[in-house]
């Protein structure tokens, strides 16, 4: 929850952040946030295979608290550093799903996946509403003050109640730190290429430099992967249809559907010219809170259904439904209460029905040899997807024309259709779940 608030509570504060720290400050803060999440996921989640999940979880929550304290600064460069440290705590979700997968099964696992997914979307929508009030009353820094308190409580909870790691469950061998450097450069380079390309142009010098970094780092990663006994990633597993389509779908879903919730809708609600001209409180109350409430109420149910009919199947259904909802948003972009109603439906189709299975599949589709590799890369794809989303949505939404938001919605629809196509390339991995069957038998199931 403490990590999630760093993303969800800032949505109603976009205008206040830009007015206080300077034009474009919100995007400048967002890029390092998602960059750190991408790098931390591919490196630290895998490292937890060796040092233990609980130890890694405690350390990263402490780092998040330090970053939150820095975000109280009035200096944008210091806030950017703070957001980078906060973003690294994105791995709390990957670690949590790995812990749940080791200790729970069957319907219980599905329900808990739904609960985790609903937390990832905020705290029943009350966080966004509260953030709107706090922003209008005290400014956006009050949000970071609250998050710091929640983060310190989280440290105590993790320390006392998260189960200790079993030494026998840790991976053999040693961490591939050379591979970690190259995959961090690859993932980080992709994120920075998308960020710079979207703002400075895809052929600009910064964008081309980062693209060159990506190419060189990836080639080096392939060489190292083939020469070490325990590679960081294990590219032979990532190349299978059980892995790479999941990564692509995650990137595309984040670059389309979640940009609607995190950027397009708040911008449209607060835009006084092309949008509805609302303040932060009303933006949260009308557009953000209802979707989060629906997610909290329905995500556990979606998780349980996914155990029965398949996580991949549920994800595909959710993608189709969300494409329809966003298309309707494009049609009714000028009608405030139509968008309000559609955001309620969006809370079920996307936040619950897409994100619940999507957030779980990284663990379910992972190889048995390196269980932390695919979850790390899949979670890093969230950050890369958001970076891609900001890259294309920023210039469109910032253009300020009457058709601005319709164009953004239709772009999301197009990207969503591509994501749906790749979802059919994803082959569910057979999973030996122990007592995973709902009746307690040791059934051989898949994540179909």
Automatic annotation (TrEMBL):
Alphabetical list of SUPFAM superfamilies matching this protein = MFS general substrate transporter
Keywords (alphabetical) are:
Membrane, Transmembrane, Transmembrane helix
The Major facilitator superfamily (MFS) profile domain, residue ranges: 1-431
Cellular localisation: Cell membrane
Q: What's an example GO cellular component term for this entry?
A: plasma membrane
Its chief place of residence is membrane
Asked whether the UniProt record includes Ribonucleoprotein among its keywords, one would answer no
What is the name of this protein? MFS transporter
Origin organism of this chain? Mycolicibacterium sphagni
């Amino acid at each position: 929850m403490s990590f999630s608030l760093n993303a969800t509570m800032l949505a109603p504060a976009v205008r206040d952040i830009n007015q206080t720290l300077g034009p474009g400050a919100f995007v400048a803060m967002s890029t390092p946030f998602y960059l750190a999440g991408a790098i931390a996921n591919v490196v630290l989640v895998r490292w937890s295979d060796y040092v233990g999940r609980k130890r890694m979880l405690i350390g990263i929550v402490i780092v998040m608290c330090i970053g939150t304290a820095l975000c109280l600064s009035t200096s944008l460069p210091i806030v950017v550093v703070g957001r980078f440290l906060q973003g690294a705590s994105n791995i709390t979700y990957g670690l949590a799903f790995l812990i749940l997968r080791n200790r729970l099964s069957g319907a219980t696992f599905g329900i808990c996946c739904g609960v985790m997914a609903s937390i990832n979307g905020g705290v029943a929508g009350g966080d966004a509403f509260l953030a709107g009030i706090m922003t209008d009353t005290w400014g956006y820094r009050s949000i970071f003050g609250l998050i710091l308190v929640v983060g310190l409580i989280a440290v105590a909870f993790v320390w006392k109640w998260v189960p200790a790691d079993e030494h026998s469950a840790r991976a053999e061998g040693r961490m591939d730190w050379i591979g970690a450097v190259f995959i961090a450069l690859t993932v980080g380079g992709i994120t920075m290429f998308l960020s710079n390309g979207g703002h400075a142009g895809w052929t600009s010098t910064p964008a081309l430099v980062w693209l060159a970094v990506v190419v060189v780092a990836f080639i080096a990663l392939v060489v190292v992967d083939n020469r070490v006994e325990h590679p960081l990633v294990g590219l032979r597993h990532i190349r299978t249809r059980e892995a790479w389509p999941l990564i692509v779908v995650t990137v595309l879903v984040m670059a389309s559907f979640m940009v609607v919730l995190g950027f397009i809708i708040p911008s449209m609600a607060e835009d006084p010219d092309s949008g509805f001209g609302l303040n932060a409180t009303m933006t949260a109350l009308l557009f953000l809170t209802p979707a989060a409430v629906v997610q909290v109420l329905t995500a556990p149910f979606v998780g349980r259904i996914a155990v029965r009919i398949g996580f991949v199947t549920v994800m595909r259904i959710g993608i189709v439904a969300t494409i329809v909802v966003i298309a309707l948003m494009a049609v009714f972009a000028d009608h405030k209460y139509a968008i309000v109603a559609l955001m309620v439906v969006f809370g079920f189709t996307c936040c619950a029905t897409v994100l619940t299975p999507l957030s779980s599949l990284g663990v379910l589709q992972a190889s048995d040899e390196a269980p932390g590799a695919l979850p790390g890369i899949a979670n890093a794809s969230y950050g890369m997807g958001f970076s891609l989303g900001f890259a294309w949505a920023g210039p469109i939404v910032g253009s300020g024309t009457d058709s601005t938001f319709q164009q953004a919605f239709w772009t999301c629809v197009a990207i969503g259709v591509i994501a749906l196509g790749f979802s059919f390339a994803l082959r569910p991995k057979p999973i030996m779940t122990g007592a995973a069957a709902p009746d307690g038998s040791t059934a051989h199931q898949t994540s179909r």
